[in-house]
Fold each of these.
Amino acid sequence: METTRKTAKLIRQRIEEMPFGEPFTPTVLLACGTRTSVDQNLSRLVKAGVIERVTRGVFVRPEISRFVGRVMPEPLKVAETVAKATGAVVQVHGAEAARRLELTTQVPTQPVFVTSGPSKRVRVGEMEIRLQHVCQRKLALAGRPAGLALSAIWYLGKAEVTPALIEKIRRKLGANEFEVLKSATPSMPAWMSDAIFRNERTAFHA
């Protein structure tokens, strides 16, 4: 009984140290007790309103806004949390990456992310988040601006990736981050690395 109470106290303390609105999975609490005891305590804390179940296997200390009430975590944070549980990498889908870099005005209708893990659909309230498996080289530089650019280039494809578009990306990224993008050229297909180096030659002769 004492062990059970101690486990419950440890789990509660760990959760109270977590930032509001930051999703987590039971695996981050396994140092506090067995998987069964962690799951049981999470269920109790959900019933008590201390945490919320975002989707299966993902929880959060709900962030409360005085304007809109409970605020659900951003789709990217949920996707990263789901992926991290299996050691997978996640990156913004190329369509959204292209929009963020102002390479297109199209707005994706559904949150989609590319991942090194298995493809899956995650239901969060009324919203569905899609995780789409892609090969590892499409995820190079994930989590940084150069990775966003790489994702956008893969999505736009050979026909649209001109030196002019690469120049626009270079201006958006800045010199240092563009150098990071260039560092990934060994893992790029020829058409992609050619477009980047054609831009370099143009900039050099300008």
Note: The mean pLDDT is 89.
Amino acid sequence: MQVAILAGGSGSRLSEETVTKPKPMVEIGGRPMLWHIMKYYSHWGHNDFVVALGYKGEYIKRYFVEYSSLSPDLTISFTDGMVQRHENGSSMEDWTVRLVDTGIYSQTGGRIKRLASHLGNETFMLTWGDGVSTVDLDALVEFHRSHGKLATLTAVRPPARFGHLELDGDRITDFSEKPQLGEGWINGAFFVLEPGVFDYIDGDQTHFEREPLERLAADGQLMAFRHYDFWQCMDTLREKMLLDQLWESGEAPWKVWA
């Protein structure tokens, strides 16, 4: 199944990091967030990616051109500039990556609609280029196929931003640092979609999270796959630091690959 990833955002709340690069290329543990997302999908057998580019899209193009050439063993001919890769048994990602310019100022819906010709007339997966999770992708796809609707989004409980207190008068009876909220669900992305969703998107300035999802819900075509485990976006430097700490600790929940 093809995986569409929106990677065109500027990441204004990460401005210290995104002056020279798009948000999905901000690094966690020395690797771009986009790489982490693709490695996660690849672990579940999804290796065909269509990446929607926008802000500083040339940065992402250069990264993948260079990444694909970094085989462990190379022969370089300085006379004619030829570079030959040698297979030596080491594993390289079995990825096909299409990098599609979807406009500097396009909104999320516009970017998705511009990918329509690349995704064909088949069910596809979609996510944003700024978040990781431990969502069971096999179960997600199975759930989508079971209900027969046009769209499935992964519903998550967001991590609390501050420590949670239980009070008895002025006495704190329970303190929990950054727990998952006990109630309330938000859009965690990690969608599975049918081509019919393109009909719900008007054009470049359409925000997918607004009119298209609102209309899909009103038409009874939007279903929620509840995910109770780890999910974390990277909207702020604080969240980037949290993800870095998880990676450096060796306990990053989304690192399921060997």
Note: The domain at 3-158+185-248 is CATH 3.90.550.10 (Spore Coat Polysaccharide Biosynthesis Protein SpsA; Chain A).
Amino acid sequence: MLVASQTADDGAVYRLTDDLAIIQTVDFFTPIVSDPYQFGAIAAANALSDVYAMGGRPVAALNIVTYPRDNAEMPLSALADILRGGADKARDAGIDIVGGHTIDDQVPKYGLCVTGVVHPDRIWRNVGAQVGDILVLTKPIGTGIVSTAVRKGEATDALAREVSELMATLNRAAAEIAQETDVHACTDVTGFGLLGHLREMLGDGCCGARISVAATPVIAGTRTFAERDFVPGGSRRNLKAVAPHVSFDPGLSDVDRLVLCDAQTSGGLLFAVPSGQAESLLTRLRAAAVTAASIGEIVASHPATIHVTS
């Protein structure tokens, strides 16, 4: 076992041979959008992301489903659409869904158990960042806050489509492009928010981080919705959990602090890469139409602290 649960990494990694290891991960959740097909696609993209965050390549997946057997408000045709959305997204990743398991439950949930492969010497872990590394983030943050506004009918149809498509976008291109870079650490930004997952990257060593709010890409409208209190409970819990490990500039608003802790679904990848390679990585990502930004750097700090500037 090369990677287990000690560092709360994105997947488990088991070595089979000197040049082959398998990655195992599972993720599923309740619907976050009203369209069943899109929900299936988002849930699948979210689960596949953990393999990409480990530097691996997905090879197969299994469905994991709970759905009511007999509920007039949730017909089985909607379940078919969920499964079709997941299958299509898996095909976008170049794999098939080869089976799965379904349980009769009044609360629908969907996701995937994904198997990937990686060379044992090329695993990306969520720890290992080095002082001087540049932090590169793909995908803007804010999906938790904007999705909350969508569910309450406060977002435009155009913004609802934008955030849905963003969550359904695979991290495949970003991961494949970054294979040409000496990635010291990587994770995907999901339920613990940007600051929560960055805190995991710092581990228990002597590294801290400095990030800039202005440099961090945020979905348009996110701050306005946060000001109107369309903030999921998970985002507030994230801020409370990470606050002891973060030094905020005094001038930063409560809204900015919540946005940086917003619980994401199928967020982007967060890379720690050598400073001399960061610009090349950003150029190649942008050339492939992948949203990417340098949001900060790894600094010497003991205890590990995240310094957030405006």
Note: The two ends are 41 Å apart (CA to CA).
